[in-house]
Amino acid sequence: MSDKTMTADEAVSRLSSGMTLGIGGWGSRRKPMALVRALLRSEVTDLTVVSYGGPDVGMLAAAGRIRKLVTAFVTLDSIPLEPHYRAARERGAFALTEIDEAMFMWGLHAAVNRLPFLPVRAGLGSDVMRVNPGLRTVTSPYEDGETFVAMPALRLDAALVHMNRADRLGNGQYLGPDPYFDDLFCEAADAAYVSCERIVDTAELTKAAPPQTLLVKRHMVTGVVEAPNGAHFTSCAPDYGRDEAFQKTYATTPWPQFAARFLAGDEQAYRSAVEEGT
Amino acid sequence: MTEATRAEYCVIACAEAWRGDGEVLASPMGLIPSLGARLARLTFAPDLLLTDGEALLIRPDGTPEGWLPYRQHLALVTGGRRHVMMGASQIDRFGNQNISCIGDWERPMRQLLGVRGAPVNTLNHPTSYWIPRHSRRVFVERVDMVCGVGYDHAAGARHHRIPRVVSDLGVFDFATPDRSMRPASLHPGVTLEQVREATGFELAVPDEVPPTREPTAEELRLIREVLDPAGTRTREVAS
């Protein structure tokens, strides 16, 4: 069995410009930020990003890496509106596919199940249909005859997610209260890169936690990256909460200054800069 | 006990949204609706389910009684056993709601949250709204982006229902022949003129608009001593 461990930079070196990239987590929660930071250090650009958006989207948008965004929202949770995303959107920096949260989930499910679409009772009557003129509807072939949106599969070239623990083979474990949709992102993608707080032996995964915490299975995973504090500054319960003070710094510092101060070096430099004070 | 404040009338008006709903999930967005949902659960709607805002169903004292991560939450939405009270950056006379952006969607003047779950909510279960500052900027002739679906866009969708809109001035419903918004009650101290002045479209006004009901002494005690002893409600609606 193969050891899939690699560094964040190695994982990102396998991505290329123009890809469709799914990013796990939700809002400002368990985002694979160490992988996003590695992405920002690379030359990869022109991305289609698929995300329940948080600072992952804000940073990639601010850095001009996004060609198209597929999302239902972008938020920092405790700061409702993501300032860098807003600024990028208001200057027309990228194309947007704005869909409902449930449509997004069913798009992932369709991709996972190798279906071209799944019917969903959402979107009809709303301007989601106006701003996405490519969306089609289907009529139930049964007696009810109801019309649904045919949500197309959100197939991904690659997925990035962050777990609490993983083994070297790619089995990923979440210990917080919500799996979000991280397993779906991995299964919907041709290649999935899983960062984690700590790589442990397979046996250790279920020593103190029940088996249903094993969210990501190794057959869906291409690379495993040990990245302690790798979701910073988003939350990674129960290992740590959101770094609210740092998030505030992120939200209130002009992007060029923030990037120069915190993202100019590698992950170690980032940690040092964070420690130096926010 | 002193007289009820405007914020407390708002809590009562929000709580009333869940009266008679039975064993469904109350999903309040905002502080006053959260107080309202918990007040309803503690008094006249004891079967309501409450969330901690994350992945747990909880009792009013915070005891977990269920697991509801986002993916199950979205399934519950579709199953219909939920009544949400959402916010609105804009809302129009037929109850179309916008939280996505202000201005042209292609190049918005102000980017807001995004449609979130408003489209799926409004087609699947009752959706009420809470607006802490009733003004012409929120109550508009036409929303810039239809996120939550209003009566004129719903095409009679089988599960579509907007029971009420609560603002700091009153309670509004759509019990008119063309399903346009009308005042159902005004909070004590509020005049119809004041509401008209703060509304960017013509309201259907019935012959008589009653005042929002008074809280009972027990409800006031629960709000003041149990649910919000720190008085945070006055931050959302000044007294």
Describe the structure.
- Chain A has eleven helices and twelve strands.
- Chain A has helices at residues 8-13, 33-41, 55-62, 83-90, 101-112, 128-131, 182-187, 202-205, 244-252, 255-262, 267-275, and strands spanning 20-23, 47-51, 66-71, 95-98, 117-120, 136-139, 147-152, 156-166, 172-173, 189-199, 214-216, 223-226.
- In chain A, α2 (33-41) links the parallel β1 and β2.
- In chain A, α3 (55-62) packs across α4.
- The longest helix of chain A is centred in the middle third of the chain and has 12 residues, at 101-112.
- In chain A, 51% of the residues are buried.
- With 239 residues, chain B is α/β, with parallel strands linked by helices.
- Chain B has a single domain (6-233), classed as 3-Layer(aba) Sandwich (Glutaconate Coenzyme A-transferase), CATH 3.40.1080.
- In chain B, the strands form three sheets. In chain B, strands 4-3-2-1-5-10-11-12-13 form a nine-stranded mixed sheet, with helices on both faces. In chain B, strands 6-7 form a two-stranded antiparallel ribbon.
- In chain B, β2 and β3 form a beta hairpin.
- In chain B, α1 (6-16) crosses α2 (31-42).
- The relative contact order of chain B is 0.18.
- At the A-B interface, α4, α5 and α6 of A face α3, β9 and α4 of B.
- Chain A: GO terms for molecular function: glutaconate CoA-transferase activity.
- Chain A: Its EC number is 2.8.3.12.
- Chain A: Keywords: Transferase.
- Chain A: This is Glutaconate CoA-transferase subunit A.
